[in-house]
Structures are given as C-alpha cells and as structure tokens.
Specification:
Layout (H helix, E strand, L loop, with lengths): L7 E2 L1 E6 L4 E6 L2 E2 H5 L6 E2 L8 H12 L13 E7 L10 E7 L3 E9 L15 H4 L3 E5 H15 L13 H10 L6
Parallel strand pairs: 1-9
Antiparallel strand pairs: 2-3, 3-4, 5-6, 6-7, 7-8, 8-9
Length: 183
C-alpha cells in the first residue's frame, strides 16, 4: 500500500442535463461545481456543444494515450474545466498535472492550462486553481470506469459531430451546393 492509497478520492461520471455535458463527480461533487461554483466561465471538456472528435481527444488525454496534444500543453497537463463558449485553451482552461501509476491516477497542482509563467502570483481565494485540492488520488479502476461512462454518454445519438476534418469541410459544402450534374 502506497502513501497515496490511504487518501483515495471517489470518481464517477454523470450526465448534467442543464449544461448538456458529462460531469466528473469527485467525492460526491461535480468537478465543475468545485472549481466554478457560480458557473460563470467553465464547463466540462465533455460538453455536448463540442464536436465529438474533441471529446474523444479529451478522453484520450485523460487516459494518457494522446499523441495529438496541443503544443502549448506540457506532457502531463490535463484540462479539467474549459471555456464554456468554445473550449479553447487561449480563453483560460483549468488544468492539473496527471501521473499514471499501475493502480492509481494522481492529479496534482491545479493551474491555468498553457500558463508557462515562471513568476508565481499571489493566490486568490476565489481563483478556480485554488478551489481544487492540490492533490487528488484515484483508484485506477474507478478512474477508468468513470472515463468509460463518459465515452458511453458521448457515443449517444444527438452529439454534435462536426466535420470529420477541417480539410473535409470545403468538399462537403461544395457537394451540398453543387448540382449533381455539375460534379
């Protein structure tokens, strides 16, 4: 038994009907409620408003298997709450550093994603990065089960698919607006 195992946090996923998103629930509270109690800026990266491929990309990062990471992220950075309008990193997304061990997943040091400022600012009590515990440790099986539940929700019909790729969009539009005899 490692020192971390004595302080395991529970984790699961549940559908948030009001936000049309899958929330990760930690210790009985939705993660977004912990870091943004007023719901003024953030949403789960698993929101229906984002294309399914973006949700799948986030899931891959949560599982530690993504090769398509934004170059502004560090190797261990994981976004846990994103801009509710667009999800873009430049808008200010909350992240943690993640460590994968055989039986554990460890989230530590909440911070603003892509923030490479070496200069430490004085912590504000209302800063979302200070509202989340500095260390969260999850049982790997429970963590994987929560992510499987997120994936199950994301695979439901009605999720925004978006274009398969940005390059495919002009071709799809051309096919949509060009009469079949001109193609």
């Amino acid at each position: 038994m490692t020192a971390y195992q004595s302080s395991l946090a529970s984790i699961l996923a549940r559908w948030n009907h009001a936000e049309q998103a899958v929330d990760l629930v930690i210790g009985g509270r939705a993660l977004i409620d912990i870091v943004d109690p007023t719901r003024s800026w953030g949403v789960s990266p698993f929101a229906r408003r984002f294309p399914r491929r973006a949700v799948r990309q986030s899931l891959a990062e949560y599982r530690g298997v993504s090769a398509d990471r934004d170059e502004r992220h560090s190797e261990s950075e994981l976004e846990i709450a994103v801009c509710s309008a667009c999800g873009d990193l430049g808008c200010g997304n909350l992240a943690v550093d993640v460590v994968f061990e055989t039986d554990l997943v460890i989230w530590k040091q909440p911070h603003w994603a892509g923030d490479n400022d070496e200069e430490e600012e004085e912590a504000d009590a209302n800063d979302p990065a200070s509202l989340l515990p500095q260390l969260l440790v999850f049982n790997r099986t429970a963590y994987d089960d929560a992510l499987a539940a997120v994936e199950k929700y994301a695979n439901r019909s009605g999720w925004y698919r978006g274009p398969e790729s940005d390059a495919a969009l002009p071709e799809r539009l051309r096919n949509l607006f060009t009469p079949s005899w001109d193609r």
